Amino acid sequence: MVLLSTLLDEKQFKSFAAIAWNIWKQRCRSVYDGKTFHTVSVIHAAGGMIDTLSKAEMLHSGQLPARHQPFTDSVPVLDFYCHIDGSWVAQGDGGSGWAYVLFNKDGSLIEYGCGTGNAFLPIHSEIQALKAAFMAVKARGINSCSFLMDCKQLQKVMTGITTVDSIDWQCFHDILDLKCLFVGQGYSCNFIRRAMNSLADGIAKYARMKGITVVGFTFPLFASL
User: Which residues form a coiled coil (predicted)?
Assistant: First the structure.
């Protein structure tokens, strides 16, 4: 690896390292878990890892992002709005992560947060993201906020379209606690398309892959970690 680092440019070396890491990880799974894997899928997974890390590191530490375009035309938002998302893979493949990104109504960044979790299911990581976002908003004394999510199942439960018992039993107590927190609050939960939630999605994946927990006010504060 040391010799290769002198022969390849930075982009080529990162690609090689990501592919080698995924092949080694899958080989361990085949030895200890008896699971098979295809080389093409390993290379594809490595490409996704490189893309996620590259997007997260495009800005220098401490740099403010461009003003976010609020979705007031397609999604009615309150005085503040907060994107939330979870990132989950099967146990043994990397665990889970969550993220929220809070803006005021004109699209200026207020705060973001991300972390790792022990989610049982994809919906569980979404619940963890929404709870972290709720706690951050309450800590700031914000009483009017729209939470934007691309998980329709969670949005339907939070807005009462479907009942709490529609959630998998492993997450039942977590979603019930979350519903109780939202009672009597001036908050809304809105569904948005995945394409409109790319920032929170990227940060959640980055947190899961790097195993970090961060709260920041410029983006991405964690690029230098």
Answer: none
